[in-house]
Amino acid sequence: MARKKPEVNSCDCQGARKSRRRDAVLDAVASSDGHLSAEEVHREAKKRLPGIGIATVYRSLKCLCGCGKVSEFIPPDGVARYEAAGSRGHHDHLVCTACGCFVEAVDPEIERLQERLAARHGFRLEGHRLEIYGLCACCARKK
């Protein structure tokens, strides 16, 4: 089944006016199938808007994350990666602490447990992020 491309609208966070630069950044992120670094977003955004600078990309990513249109993931290598929020549905990450690779994972049972945990503490769940750290199969074999 083909993945539905997320709707791309101009960012309206923090009272920001419509911006061709921010739209180019959002389109670059939304058009990707993976997690892009800011440099990769910059490279893709330049295809849409040749004069866009890396500083503008960083500012736009911060704004887009702030208004919930882009999600940020920071693996152990410390290089933030970005994806369009909701582009592939909710998922968690399994992160290898040796090589830095990561896998997207979804487990309905874990989702239910998190909902029950929030309810038990009187929280109305609005969202969450789960990252599990360990060794990938390849790195575990080496140890």
Task: Describe what this molecule looks like in 3D.
With 143 residues, this protein is an alpha+beta fold. It has 2 domains: 7-87, Arc Repressor Mutant, subunit A, CATH 1.10.10.10; 90-143, 2-Layer Sandwich (Dna Ligase, domain 1). The chain is built from 5 helices and 6 strands, in the order αβααββββαβα. The protein has helices spanning 20-30, 38-48, 54-66, 108-120, 137-142, and strands spanning 36-37, 70-73, 81-84, 92-96, 102-105, 131-134. The strands form 2 sheets. Strands 1-3-2 form a 3-stranded antiparallel sheet. Strand 2 and strand 3 (81-84) form a beta hairpin. Helix 1 (20-30) crosses helix 3 and helix 2 packs across helix 3 (54-66). Mean pLDDT is 85; it is low at 1-10.
Topology overview:
Blueprint: H1 20-30, E1 36-37, H2 38-48, H3 54-66, E2 70-73, E3 81-84, E4 92-96, E5 102-105, H4 108-120, E6 131-134, H5 137-142
Parallel strand pairs: 4-6
Antiparallel strand pairs: 1-3, 2-3, 4-5
Helix pairs in contact: 1-2, 1-3, 2-3
Class by helix and strand content? alpha+beta
What series of H and E elements makes up the topology? HEHHEEEEHEH
- CA radius of gyration is 17 Å
Largest sheet: 3 strands, antiparallel
CATH class of the largest domain: Mainly Alpha
Q: Provide the CATH architecture of the largest domain.
A: Orthogonal Bundle
Shape: flat
What value does the average pLDDT take? Answer: 85
Q: What's this model, at a glance?
A:
This protein is 38% helix and 16% strand. The chain contains 5 helices and 6 strands. The N and C termini lie far apart (39 Å).
Relevant terms:
3-stranded mixed beta sheet, 3-stranded antiparallel beta sheet, disordered N terminus, alpha+beta
